[in-house]
Amino acid sequence: MVEDRDEPTIIEPTDAVIRLTATCICGSDLWPYRGAYDVDRQVMGHEYVGVVEAIGSEVATVKVGDFVVGSFFASDNTCEICRAGYQSHCVHRVLMGLIGTQSDRARIPLADGTLVATPAQPDADLIPSLLAASDVLGTGWFAAVAAEAGPGKTVAVVGDGAVGLLAVLAAKQLGAQRIIAFSRHADRQKLAREFGATDIIEERGDDGVAKLKDLTNGLGAHSVVEAVGTQEAMMQAIRATRPGGHVGFVGVSHDVSIPGDLLFGSGVHLHGGPAPVRRFLPELIELIWDRTIEPGKVFDLTLPIERAAEGYRAMDERRAIKVLLTPTDNND
């Protein structure tokens, strides 16, 4: 349901209000859509780019008129946890999904720590990629970093949604030698190869692990990204990783449990969780601004925000990888 609500205003002196240029639907938004959570008129959305329209009295790093990119967690970027690079666990964090950014305007708490301004007003064709940086690119990048992707490494990616596809892109940028994408869908396989995948495995579960072992001399991958959040995906990721290797898990966990004997016997490192997107935003914005990467290719359907329900259906039915929504002001 799309409805009118009161315009957001400055509540705290550290707030900003932005007019959204673009927002989108995340794979994690599909969990409440499918009934996994009890929701009643829940606001939606946590990915956003736009222009600052108002700032609180204590905001110093962004100004009215700036084009900004934010993260799905607002953070102060100054606490000990933030300074260690884990802004998604900031002691003052605010989950933007509780505020909702599938809207024309949004209030951004902790604006100084959350928002990063672009060098200037972006060209229209850069906006999808900048929007991707707000979550799926930053999350895929963190997954690849957590999995220790790098030169000489074989990286495998479990999950061919937007995050998994952008983990492929991240692994390529981080210098991985071989990148194996698990995917059964021709359109997603094509995009995975554009982003840097060298091999595609269509099998899942134990069959997928066996195929990967065949490609890696029986050893498994050095680095594996888990970008789904299901039990099957996590087991596949751990079993596809060689002893001493690393799993970077960023799929939102749904009833995932890891048997102790598997964890003890695997000899793998596990690291992940909600991505500290803010840590990577300056670097990602620069790569996009310089046109080194084009993560916006993951958006394969664009709709006005009034037709958001169509976008949810398209993603739920896997007819779209990721849906970009254009706010009302952009549809006049």
Q: What coarse outline follows from CA principal-axis ratios? A: globular
Question: How far from one another are the termini?
Answer: 21 Å
Largest sheet geometry: 7 strands, mixed
Total tally of structural domains = 2
Poorly predicted runs of 5 or more residues: none
The fraction of residues in strands falls at: 15-25%
Give the tags:
single chain, alpha/beta, Quinone Oxidoreductase, Chain A, domain 1, Rossmann fold, seven-stranded mixed sheet, globular
Note down, in words, how this protein is organized.
- This protein is an alpha/beta fold and 332 residues long.
- The protein folds into 2 domains: 175 residues, Medium-chain alcohol dehydrogenases, catalytic domain (Quinone Oxidoreductase, Chain A, domain 1); 134 residues, Rossmann fold (3-Layer(aba) Sandwich), CATH 3.40.50.720.
- It is built from 12 helices and 15 strands.
- The strands form 3 sheets. Strands 1, 2, 3, 6, 7, 14 and 15 form a 7-stranded mixed β-sheet that branches. A 6-stranded parallel β-sheet has the order 10-9-8-11-12-13, sandwiched between helices.
- Helix 6 packs parallel to helix 7.
- The longest helix has 13 residues.
- The radius of gyration is 19 Å and the shape is globular.
- The mean pLDDT is 94.
